[in-house]
Design brief:
The complex is a heterodimer of chains A (163) and B (790).
Chain A: H1 2-14, H2 19-56, E1 57-61, H3 63-69, E2 73-79, E3 86-88, E4 93-100, E5 105-111, E6 123-131, E7 134-143
Helix pairs in contact in A: 1-2
Chain B: H1 2-25, H2 32-58, H3 65-70, H4 79-82, H5 88-112, H6 116-136, H7 143-146, H8 154-163, H9 179-193, H10 195-206, H11 212-243, H12 253-278, H13 282-304, H14 321-344, H15 346-349, H16 361-391, E1 397-399, H17 401-424, H18 432-456, H19 461-487, H20 493-514, E2 516-523, E3 528-530, E4 533-543, E5 550-561, E6 564-568, E7 571-575, E8 584-586, E9 588-590, E10 595-607, E11 612-616, E12 620-623, E13 626-637, E14 650-660, E15 663-673, E16 678-680, E17 683-684, E18 690-698, E19 708-715, E20 724-735, H21 738-761, H22 777-781
Classes of the chains: A alpha+beta (163), B alpha+beta (790).
Chain lengths: 163, 790
């Protein structure tokens, strides 16, 4: 019943008399609709992906910019080994001084103990926010000289918070 | 030197294998026998490389840069075996070894099925790639070759070797645990296995057999998924139990890059299954086989080229422009090879148009694969984004874990939904009543379970949705697995696997969503309440005393809840590896079926300090905290100095007289000295609440009488004078984390059942059974099937 109806419609459009080819046309139309729907879903998904990506990306910047931005950023630099650093085990805050790649110095307060490989780190990346001249870090990545780590990345853990 | 020659020769042989199989494929069948001989020769040669490299490692041949870089004399068994693949050179070797071994099984397998020439030709191309990498990253280079620019000469290295003074840098102690023996080989076996579906799809194309190759490749694709999946989980388990990241997954680029090929291969397995049953997805399967291998190459490129340098906690040594370019070249090469072969044969495959009913099992399986691919795209996008952003001149950016987590909530919900439907649907077409009948119970049970989960404390809507759909998948798969196990156990693989994934998801929701963490300071022998547990630090023991390169202590933290006592044993140690500049730690875990208590050490400090008194011979001082007690330093006693009961230490003593209200007491206070530090023995003064220890001796060579002794004076009445060890740690309670491990193991187990089943079916040269007669257990088989599409 339905097929007959569709056949008639198809015939109206292109005048084809062959039921078989009309059927195939309908199939093709259905296939195309599928691809279109599938395509739309994919595009929407990718769009959401990019939105989420931009939303969750944290910008690399320097201290000066971080002060102005007033949002979560990450700053790369080195920690100043000659300056005092300390860990307050009661407050669980680790404090040290760092100098970013643009040579701005800043005090960093990190919630947690001194991270792994900190002493040896050639450079550190801190993630967090500037507040009243102090950088409050929620994460510290330490980058060690390759001497201390092998070259197979599958085997060389640093420290990271994971689920 | 020999090793290096063999590697070069092996590269030549790999080219030979490829060329002769190519010629054989083009009709010169006379080259088949030589090609096989070349392959076995290659395997023997690689065996020799393996033996040589292992021998270099085990016999400490530090003149080789690779051995020098990753091993040392102190490295004991079994970790010294891990030095074999601890660096890039070795891990490429390991990858080649697994590829070759797989080839040894693959060759007779495809020979029997008439696929030898094309399969081994494409496989040869992969061997050529691997050997070229080994030529570039050769594990047999000498120190004086790699470090020539630092003025290291052959004479110097040989001299040091002859003295026996040359030692390697050693293996990072953080990695020295049993997991380094297990995890990397399994991961590389999985990587190597991912090549097989690719070469088979290419072979199917050139043979124009678009159905046949699926049956032959299917068990291999399952094998690759099973092994890589298991390898990835072992990595997570390793991170959890010893690396102290606090969890098992951090969306780190290295983790992600092994997940991407796995996801693509799992998608492939599903569409391959559809093709086995319905002959559909012909084009999709070829494309996905290509993408699986390309994902392996992408993963290799991302982790080994140094391109993600700053975004990962894993170290990325810049391997040099040559390796970078070569990895990039082969990534593009295999992609272009696959895509152009598809283009060349497109006229043959374009006729395969799939006409699946929306209500068919094959349609939902297709959707499932698409969702898995979406996950792969998301992970790839997130992993590569920092590199892409830099490339297109955007601001440099790092992707947070939240991106992956947010994106995977809808993905996982969609996956479970599709899984439930595909399990409940029939091939070709399902009618509504049957579908409802089949999923009714799973919906009801899942609803009840989800409500129960709500009352367990899960109130977040996204988590509840995940939990609901996980339960649904779990119920329907367990139901079907049980039904099938009674009839034809060999068909239960898919159900067991999917039940495993559902368990894994429940575990992830519980542990990722509801882990509680608290910072704690555990004073020695003083119970502290943390997260509803009573924790007591009970002391420590030195472990691995036989190793001179480390000072390692196991700390004992007693965990008590509801009268049940468990012991967590975190580890805190100092190692020569970082010149003992800072301590290293391993977490301690108190395991229970319901939840783990995870103790991650942060610091060990002493609180309270005994006042010090410095005295020369025959001087007297009052006890700093109590004027009613005083003591006189009589003299030093060095009579037992050389007779020490502690190796490497002198045993010194000072004789003191303590004056108390009840009279004088003479005491001999001992201290051990190794040239730099004193290890005093605390001595209680009888009839008092005072303790004395000799913490330092300073000798005056000119006037021995002016030598001084320093005493620590502990007064039990004054707690601030008693030094107490405080163990500072982060304490987490990880609910139902065992579901994560159980889930993955169940999933892998299911894969192996499926491999067993489809390996059996790969031999028979039979018609693909009529879908109408295919029955998958009770639920599906009761359906009477279907009317053709449109």
């Amino acid at each position: 019943m339905l097929a007959e109806e569709l056949n008639r419609i198809v015939r109206l459009f292109d005048g084809s008399s062959s039921v078989r080819s009309a059927k195939q046309k309908i199939i093709i139309t259905i296939m195309q609709t599928r691809y279109i729907i599938g395509g739309i879903i994919a595009v929407v998904f990718v769009a959401i992906g990019f939105y989420a990506l931009n939303d969750s990306g944290i910008q690399y910047t320097d201290i000066k910019t971080a002060e102005v931005l007033n949002k979560k950023v990450q700053v790369k630099g080195k920690w100043l080994k000659e300056e005092p650093k300390s860990y307050d085990s009661k407050a669980n805050v680790f404090t040290f001084l760092m100098e970013d790649d643009a040579h701005n110095k800043v005090k960093v307060e990190y919630t947690g103990a001194q991270p792994n490989n900190f002493e040896l780190a050639e450079s550190v990346v801190v993630k967090g926010k500037m507040e009243n001249g102090v950088f409050h870090a929620s994460d510290i990545l330490t980058k060690c000289p390759s001497k201390y780590e092998g070259s197979d990345p599958n085997l060389h853990p640093g420290n990271k918070k994971s689920i | 030197m020999v090793g290096q020659y063999i590697i070069h020769i092996l590269f030549g042989i790999a080219v030979g294998i490829t060329v002769s199989y190519f010629m054989a494929m083009k009709g010169k069948t006379g080259l088949l026998a030589p090609a096989r001989i070349l392959y076995y020769l290659f395997a023997v040669g690689l065996g020799a490389v393996t033996v040589l490299l292992m021998n270099n490692v085990l016999t400490h041949q530090f003149q080789y840069a690779y051995v020098h870089g990753y091993s040392s004399k102190d490295l004991g068994s079994p970790f010294i075996y891990a030095a074999f693949y601890a660096g890039q050179e070795g891990s490429f070797t390991l990858w080649t070894i697994f590829t070759t071994v797989i080839g040894l099984f693959l060759l007779p397998y495809v020979k029997k099925r008439g696929y030898e020439q094309p399969v081994m030709f494409f496989y040869g191309l992969i061997l050529v790639f691997l050997m070229l990498m080994l030529v570039a990253k050769n594990p047999f280079a000498f120190l004086w070759e790699t470090m020539a620019n630092q003025g290291i000469t052959q004479e110097r290295v040989t001299g040091l070797m002859n003295d026996g003074t040359l030692n390697g840098k050693g293996l990072n102690p953080v990695l020295q645990n049993r997991w380094i023996i297990i995890h990397p080989p399994i991961l590389f076996l999985g990587f190597a296995a991912m090549a097989v579906p690719f070469v088979m799809s290419m072979a199917g194309l050139v043979k124009r057999e678009f159905q046949e190759w699926i049956r032959i490749a299917f068990p291999w694709a399952l094998f690759a998924c099973a092994v890589l999946g298991f390898g990835i989980m072992l990595g997570g388990f390793w991170a959890y139990v010893t690396l102290g990241w606090g969890g098992f997954w951090a969306w780190d680029p290295v983790e992600n890059s092994s997940l991407i090929p796995w996801l693509v291969c799992v998608a492939l397995v599903h569409t391959m299954y559809v093709q086995r049953k319905t002959k559909g997805f012909v084009k999709t399967n070829i494309l996905l086989s290509v993408l699986t291998f390309v994902a392996v190459m992408l993963s290799t490129f991302l982790t080994r080229s140094g391109i993600l340098g700053e975004t990962s906690v894993h170290s990325f040594v810049e391997p040099g422009m040559y390796v970078y370019n070569m990895l990039l070249f082969f990534l593009i090469f295999f992609f272009v090879l696959g895509v152009s072969l598809i283009a060349i044969y497109y006229k043959d495959i374009k006729k395969f148009n799939d006409r699946f009913e929306y209500s068919s099992r094959e349609f939902t399986l297709g959707i499932g694969s698409a969702v898995l691919l979406a996950s792969a795209v998301i992970v790839t996008l997130g992993t590569c984004y920092p590199a892409i952003a830099e490339l297109i001149g955007q601001q440099k950016i790092a992707i947070q874990q939240s991106f992956y987590n947010t994106m995977h909530i809808p993905i996982m919900i969609a996956l479970f939904l599709v899984n439930v439907f595909s399990m409940a649907m029939s091939w070709k077409r399902t009618n509504k009543e049957q579908l409802i009948k089949r999923i009714k119970w799973s919906v009801i049970i899942s609803l009840l379970s989800t409500i129960a989960t709500y009352f367990l404390g899960v109130h977040n809507a996204e988590y509840l949705a995940l939990v609901f759909f996980s339960w649904m998948a779990l119920v329907i798969n367990v139901d079907m697995a049980v039904t099938i196990l009674r009839k034809t156990p060999v068909k239960s693989g898919a159900y067991i696997s999917h039940a495993g994934v559902a368990l894994l998801m429940l575990g992830i929701v519980a542990t990722a969503g509801y882990t509680e963490t608290s910072h704690a300071r555990l004073k020695f022998n003083t119970p502290t309440n943390v997260l509803g547990y009573s924790l007591t630090y009970k002391g420590r023991d030195r472990v691995e005393k036989e190793f001179k390169d480390r000072e390692k202590y196991e700390y004992y933290v007693e965990v008590e809840k509801n009268g049940q006592k468990l012991l967590a044993k975190p580890i805190w140690y100092w190692s020569d590896f970082n010149q003992r500049k800072e301590p290293m730690a391993e977490p301690g875990i108190a395991w229970t079926p319901k939840s783990d208590l995870y103790v991650s050490p942060k610091q060990v400090i002493y609180e309270g300090e005994a006042p010090k008194v410095k005295l020369m011979k025959e001087q007297t001082s009052a006890f700093p905290t109590d004027s009613t007690v005083s003591f006189t330093m009589q003299r030093f006693d060095m009579s037992e100095a050389r007779n020490s009961d502690m190796e490497g230490y002198l045993k010194m003593a000072a004789i003191v007289t303590v004056h108390t209200a009840s009279g004088d007491v003479e005491k001999k206070l001992y201290t051990y000295f190794n040239g730099t530090e004193f290890l005093p023995i605390e001595t209680k003064i009888p009839n008092t609440n005072k303790r004395l220890s000799l913490i330092e001796v300073k000798r005056n060579q000119q006037e021995p009488d002016k030598s001084t002794a320093t005493f620590a004076c502990i007064d039990e009445a004054k707690p601030e004078t008693i030094p107490v060890e405080v163990f500072v740690a982060d304490i987490s309670v990880k609910p139902f984390i065992n579901l994560v491990w159980i889930g993955v193991i169940t999933m892998v187990f299911g894969f192996f059942i499926a491999i067993f089943k489809h390996l059996g079916e790969s031999v028979k040269k039979q018609e693909v059974p009529n879908p109408d007669s295919v029955s998958e257990g009770l639920i599906t088989s009761e359906s009477s099937l279907p009317t053709p599409v449109v």
